[in-house]
Design brief:
Layout: H1 2-9, E1 16-25, E2 32-35, E3 50-53, H2 59-72, E4 80-83, E5 106-109, H3 116-122, E6 127-129, E7 143-145, H4 150-161, E8 166-173, H5 174-179, H6 182-203, H7 215-226, H8 239-251, H9 261-264
Parallel strand pairs: 3-4, 3-6, 4-5
Antiparallel strand pairs: 1-8, 2-6, 2-7
Length: about 270
């Protein structure tokens, strides 16, 4: 997760060399869930509430909070964050994050016998943010999205900001890079070629490569929004997205200060 690699890098941990290769990008407006019968009717209603998330530092949760605060004016300063697995009782996992938060944040563990989705159904929490849909979404009538037409929200967000949220990046162990520095450029070029091959396969019209009946129409929409670079790698095409994520991380106490984007990534391409 890119928030993890950034959080480690700003502590001075140089165990890894970071490539500006972002194989996972995902809009997150559609990953905010509420109880249909609960008190939340819009983003600003989340102020002071109890919100579930797998882990506070999960990059998907960081993006969700940033969107709610900056795009919709939600005051999340008084929120209690309840950490746990969305679908199953127990923890989601602690990950590999530096443990220290740089602002006072209210964080609780979910009860050991309840999943976050069950807590939301029971009314014990008021919303869920995270990287996956609750498994009962579409099956339990009370589990709904905060944004009913999330796809439209995400599309308009991109058109307005040019931000396509990054979830993951690619790293190389520092010990390997120091012995073979050429590997960074070679791996970057390989990732670019792999992406180009995947794009070509998706566009082949003779037989669809994935189970999306309107894939051709989706690709046309992508072309209309992104032009010829729908999934760009490299620092410059992703600069605003990276700077926004760093801003969100600093505001949410994940890092003490904002690093410069150019200082995070090895120069390739």
């Amino acid at each position: 997760g890119i928030s993890t690699t950034i959080a480690h890098a700003v502590t001075g941990d140089d165990s890894f060399v970071h490539l500006p290769v972002f194989p996972s990008k995902m809009f997150r407006h559609s990953y905010i869930f509420i109880n249909r019968n609960g008190p939340i009717k819009g983003p600003k209603d989340l102020a002071g509430r109890r919100i579930g998330c797998p882990t506070y530092g999960q990059v998907a949760a960081i993006w969700c909070r940033g969107h709610l605060m900056h795009e919709y004016g939600a005051d999340l300063s008084g929120v209690t964050w309840v950490q746990g697995s969305i679908d199953h009782a127990g923890s989601h996992g602690s990950g590999l994050r530096p443990a220290k938060l740089h602002k006072p944040i209210k964080i609780e563990k979910a009860p050991p016998d309840k999943s976050l989705q069950q807590l939301l159904i029971d009314g014990a929490i008021d919303a869920i943010v995270g990287a996956s849909r609750p498994s009962l979404f579409g099956k339990h009538p009370d589990l709904v999205r905060l944004f009913a037409d999330a796809r439209s929200e995400e599309r308009e967000f991109y058109k307005r900001t040019g931000i396509h949220p990054i979830m993951h990046d690619v790293v190389i162990r520092r010990a390997v890079y120091d012995r073979h520095p050429w590997i960074a450029e070679s791996l970057y070029e390989a990732c670019e070629e792999a992406k180009a091959r995947a794009d070509k396969r998706l566009r082949y019209g003779g037989a669809q490569r994935v189970m999306l009946p309107w894939l051709a129409a989706d690709m046309e929409e992508i072309d209309a929004l992104w032009g010829d670079k729908p999934w760009a790698y490299g620092v410059e095409p992703n600069r605003k997205t990276l700077e926004t994520l760093i801003q969100y991380m600093e505001e949410q106490g994940e890092i003490a200060a904002r690093p410069k984007v150019d200082d995070l990534f090895v120069k390739v391409g």
